[in-house]
Request: fold
Amino acid sequence: MTDETNEVEGGGPAGGGADETGAPEGPGPQAEAAAPTEPAGDARSRMESRQAEWMRQLQTMIDEVATQAAPVIRDVAAKATELAQRAAAASAPYAARAADVTAEVAEAAAQKSREVAADLRRSSAAQGASTDLGGGEPGAGTSEAAPSADEGGAI
Reply:
């Protein structure tokens, strides 16, 4: 009947109970209260040693994976380098052609700009000459000042 009163919900005897021989099974509540630092310190050191062992095992696994993966990574890097070289070689003619087209377009734009600037200077000079003669109002003869799109005014 004493076994029933000492049992806890977990199904086993409560701490500090006795086994079949009558010897105490472990430290009871009084033993824990009497020396709380010694068992806690011992448990902590066991936990720390387990953690240290786990960390050593984990580091060993990482080192093994790194050692085994190194040749594969080198192969992948070599393939990537080969692909980059092929892409550069294949794109070189397109880049050269794009540079040529860019140069042609820039030259055409420069030529068009020179023509527009010359037209503006001529119209400005013609306008200045007509106002110097006093024959017209300022702004007369400005119909040629801005070239139309048909004359190449658009760039």
Observations:
- Confidence is low (pLDDT under 50) at residues 1-15, 140-145.
